[in-house]
Amino acid sequence: MALVEIRDVHKKFGRTDVLNGVSLDVEEGEIVTIIGRSGSGKSTLLRCINALETVDAGEIHVEGQRVHARMPDLRQFRQRVGIVFQAFNLFSHLKVERNITLAPLLTGRIGKSEARPLALDVLARVGLADKIDAWPEQLSGGQQQRVAIARCLAMAPHLMLFDEVTSALDPELVGEVLKVMEAMARQGMTMILVTHEMGFARNVADRIVFMHQGRVWEQGPPSKLFVRPETPELASFIASVK
Amino acid sequence: MRSFSFIDFVSLLSALRWTVVLVVLALGFGAPLGLGLATGRISRLAPLRWISAAAIQVIQGVPLLGLLFFFYFGMPVFLGIQVPALVAVTVAYTLYTAAFLGEIWRGGLEAVKQAQWEAGACLGLSRWQQFRHIVGPQALRLSLPPTVGFLVQLVKGTSLASIIGFVELARAGQVVSAATFQPLLTYAVVAAIYFATCLPLTLWSRSLEARLDGSR
Questions:
Q1: What residues of B are in contact with residue A85 (Cβ under 8 Å)?
Q2: Chain A residues with CB inside 8 Å of B118's CB?
Q3: Contact residues, chain B to chain A, C-beta under 8 Å
Q4: How far A152 CA lies from chain B's nearest CA (Å)?
Q5: Quick check: B133 and A79 CB within 8 A?
Q6: Domain coverage including residue A228
Q7: Quick check: B142 and B112 in contact, CB under 8 A?
Q8: Do A85 and A55 contact (CB within 8 A), yes or no?
Q9: Residues A154-168: pLDDT tens digits?
Q10: Integer angstrom CA distances of residue B192 from A14, A189, B195, B202
Q11: Along the 216 residues of chain B, how does pLDDT read in single tens digits?
């Protein structure tokens, strides 16, 4: 059984069909990258996977559990599925340590004495252990995004979702964030990413999913998809981002 | 007839304590109620939003004087209960404070980005935990300057309680003025005392604004 099973999902915003019958499976340990033009439904699909958006039709299962906004253990579910956003969304009134330990403490995952060691551990994994006592505003965009990733890691998620996490960064800061994500991929984390970083998609992803008009238009390993696209839509997309 | 003396000044100053008592009571009861209205205004439950919005509209739309008259003169007529002046003014100022603070704090809560709630939700926090630990503290920071600003309004607003005979600073001024026949001097002193009370609050509000300009 796949870790994530998406079956014929439909979603409208107002009268606009954003998702138009999406089906997709993601296996445990797999790195899946979703690419496509803006408005193709990539981010919406990601947000549906952890019930930030509710689907109008179709079903999403994660670890065999049906996902929807009114599921009884939504909060426990969200602790197992981390999501990192384009805009970091750090808590600006809290220092880095507290940003990371707030949720583990409040949800009873850890006790008070374990908080700082946990923060140090996950910060070390994103290369920012020395920033544990900093305020978010004192960090660069790339560092803030790495703290946001560390904040997710502190919940020990089974699945990580990345929603265009490098799109808001200055070009010279993109690399440090991608490096952290590559390391996570090597450690076997299951990851679904929406990204415009084609180099990253090519080198790290196990599978590329090209979305177009709210559907999975074409998918496959990067070696095939980037070299021999089958549909003219993908061919023109690849040509446009080169 | 006697002229305005130091004793009169002391009696005005001592009446100031009732002004302070009124402010403290209004805040003590009005602030929690205001917090309830503010959270009601941003609730996910539509009826709660409507009730809170309506309550704020009504209270803000009625002159403070009307509230005072209603609870002091109106309650005996409509409900047959004679309420002591202190109770009537406390209820009136509590509602007044709750409505205004409720609206200020709602603004503060809405000024915090929706994504902050979302980030909390994605970490498995409950709506209450998101409010208590993430959005509330940031909203408080944003709301502090206008909240202190309202405090100045409240201090001056307590002078209206004199109309129903509650002896606070303004009412004490009337008494001294009647005894000395020096209304100009008396009310000038009263005004100076209000000013001296409000000035530190105003300065505090300004310094808060400078310090918490929302950059963090």
A1: 115, 118-119
A2: 52, 85, 89
A3: 113, 115-116, 118-126, 129, 133-134, 137-138, 141, 215-216
A4: 7
A5: no
A6: 4-90+159-241
A7: yes
A8: no
A9: 999 999 999 999 998
A10: 59, 69, 5, 15
A11: 678 889 999 999 999 999 999 999 999 999 999 999 999 999 989 999 999 999 999 999 999 999 999 999 998 888 888 888 899 999 999 999 999 999 999 999 999 999 999 999 999 999 999 999 999 999 988 998 899 999 999 999 999 999 888 888 999 999 999 989 999 999 999 999 999 999 999 898 888 877 765 444
Cβ–Cβ gap A75/B215 under 8 Å: no
Which residues on A lie below 8 Å from B124 (Cβ)? Answer: 75-79, 103, 107, 155
Q: Is B31 exposed, middle or buried (0-12, 13-18, 19+ CB in 10 A)?
A: middle
Q: Class of the B6-215 domain?
A: mainly alpha
| Chain segment A42-95, per-residue pLDDT in tens | 999 999 999 999 999 999 999 999 998 888 899 999 999 999 999 999 999 999
pTM of the model: 0.84
**Cβ separation A89–B215 shorter than 8 A:** no
| Residue A107 belongs to some domain of the structure | no
Of the candidates B123, B138, B216, the beta carbon closest to that of A103 is on B123
CA–CA dist B156, A222 (Å, integer) = 71
Domains of chain A: total: 1
Enclosing H/E stretch for B192: helix B183-211
